[in-house]
Amino acid sequence: MEKNILQHINKAFDHRIRLGIMSTLMVNEYADFTTLKELLGATDGNLASHAKALEAEKYIQIEKQFIGKKPNTRYVMTKEGKKAFKNHINALEKLIKG
Hints:
Helices cover about 55% and strands about 20% of the residues. By secondary structure, it is α+β, with helices and mostly antiparallel strands. Strand 2 (about 60-65) and strand 3 form a beta hairpin. The radius of gyration is 15 Å and the shape is elongated.
């Protein structure tokens, strides 16, 4: 087993909400706030703070717009985010396989 495998485990993804956001965005072009909130069973504040943390790392983009008169927030994974998340998943797989 590679000695430094743990250095590839990304601390930005160590919370289930962040892991859920990233996993959802790996298989969808984007996801809106309400969808993620329901999917992950998160509170408004919890989801917003974890999304902001991922945005600060430049792993996701937060896009705010209006649909009709209703505000809509949606999340899109960045290229950096996709790369970082794939590296994280690969490191977890290597760790599990030994």
